[in-house]
Design goal:
Layout: E1 4-10, H1 32-44, E2 52-55, H2 59-72, E3 77-78, H3 95-101, H4 125-142, E4 146-152, H5 154-165, H6 169-172, E5 181-187, E6 193-201, H7 211-215
Parallel strand pairs: 1-4, 2-3, 2-4
Antiparallel strand pairs: 1-5, 5-6
Helix pairs in contact: 1-2, 4-5
């Protein structure tokens, strides 16, 4: 059956990694490790014959998009609708800072679709979901069949998966995503979709070592994974 195969690649680690701020629309640079993660992902995906390569217009996603597009002999298409959620006045702040400065947001900071909450000067969970769903609808209308790479952000990929599989974005926030991870989804005419790959790590460490897919667990229980 003819279908659209969508390759969702998250950007690599940024120079703010370790602090875990809400970067959103802030155009933070990639760390050296983040660039290496995307370079490794591009090598792993080199055999794929992409019909289109699309990315957010923010550098951390655009860097990976340029690598994939160059390898495929295509021109990278960028679109700000594929950006991460806009956190407004909370851009660059960590979770505890946001809760202290904006107590009205409460626990909705980590569950932005639980109720209609807008980040001050930014987006609501519903508004963000609608923006990404609209971009996805355009992509499907323009390219109903073929292979498309989309390099974006953790929240954006969650919103895409939520739209395709009927989850709320609040549910999708429960799914961890590594920097440089890949999801692959087959999207069929109509509303059917099949997830082929979820959170596959393509970085330079590979699966032979723990890699960042497990490193984030270190220290949680006495340093053990």
């Amino acid at each position: 059956m003819k279908r659209l195969r969508l390759y969702l690649l998250r950007h690599g680690e940024t120079q703010t990694n370790g602090r875990y701020p809400f970067n959103g629309w802030t155009d933070v640079p990639l760390s050296d490790k983040g660039k290496a993660q995307l370079e490794a992902a591009a090598r792993a995906l080199a055999p794929v014959r992409f019909d289109r390569v699309i990315s957010s217009d923010l550098f951390r996603a655009r860097f990976g998009g340029e690598l994939l597009a160059g390898g495929a002999g295509l021109k990278l298409e960028t679109d700000p609708d594929w950006r991460e959620m806009h956190f407004g006045e909370c851009e660059g702040l960590e979770f505890e800072e946001i809760r202290r400065l904006h107590p009205e947001l409460g626990e909705s900071v980590m569950n932005p679709e639980g109720r209609e909450v807008s980040f001050p000067g930014g987006e609501s969970g519903q508004g963000f979901s609608a923006r990404v769903a609209g971009a996805l609808a355009r992509l499907r209308a323009e390219t109903p069949v073929g292979r498309v790479a989309l390099v974006s952000h953790a929240g954006t990929a969650r919103a895409v998966l939520a739209a395709l599989f009927g989850f709320s974005v609040a549910v999708m926030w429960s799914f961890h995503q590594s920097h440089g991870c890949l999801h692959v989804v087959d999207v069929y005419p109509g509303s059917a979709a099949a997830c082929r790959v979820l959170n596959a790590y393509l970085g330079p460490e590979g699966y032979a070592s723990p890699g960042p897919g497990l490193d984030f667990l270190a220290g949680e229980f006495g340093g053990a994974y």
